[in-house]
Design brief:
Elements lengths: L20 H10 L1 E2 L2 H6 L2 H12 L8 H5 L6 E2 L13 H10 L7 H6 L2 H10 L3 H11 L27 E12 L2 H9 L7 H14 L1 H4 L8 E11 L4 E12 L4 H19 L7 E11 L6 E2 L6
Helix pairs in contact: 1-3, 7-8, 10-12
Length: about 300
Amino acid sequence: MPSPGVYAFEGIEEDLPFLPLAARRVLDLLGRKMSLEAWLSLPAGHRHLLVRAGAEARVDASVQAVIDAAKPAPLAVAPVADPDASAPPASLVAALLASAPSRPLEVARWRSLRPLDRYSLGKSAGKPEKLASAYDEIVGPAGPALTHLTPSGEVHMVDVGEKAETARRAVASARVRTTRETVEAIAAGTLAKGDVLAVARVAGILAAKRTPDLVPLCHPVRTTGAAVELELDAARGEVRVRATVEAVDRTGVEMEAMVAASVASLTVYDMIKSVDRWATIEGVRLESKSGGKSGEVTRPGERP
């Protein structure tokens, strides 16, 4: 990609001698029609600014001033909204069937795309050769399953702005394997560092709230509740950890629950390492989640 926001299939060089699709999206959304002469009248920095604006999930209306500074002045036209994110337009589906039947575009894949990706596919629908190239770069030959990667392999935070806010809940678990004597010391409160369970519980709750700081591509969420339960099993020499996190937001809290369980387990280890430095943390896993498009999901039976 020669410039952020410019697709390779567009064949536009670094100095942006033509209007990239990202810039065209800005013009459509803000209701402006710009000639090539007007585009080239803008300083290179302003052209790049408009391209970056078009690559964002939402176009900042403040770039209107940059557009209107072009000469000749862009024409005011009726704004054109982005394609509906819920399903690909019928015209695009028909164009793919007619010219590229081996390139399906499923609803789930369409919804996972960036607004600029959806816009660009729609704009390419009338040109079969361009549509095939756009599909291969944006969707990929088989449709990438990892939504944290762009078609060009760049890491990015998934856009969840168009998802509905729902009540979210996730439960995760882990266990600390140690010795019977250590578990009995935890229960008796005789360890040098103090109350293991209380400290681990607070550590897990704090970790749930700091998940976006620890896991780079996690979104901050509006947490409405977090709880960490710890159960002692002296016979097995185990401390079992169970973390529950709840939120009302556009994305789930599975990572928050798993981070809470992990950090609570690490805290248990930190509190007991003076008596058992070879304790292990095992089985950090998601037990269940609810909310969002997938609804309620519970962990299936053990994998073979």
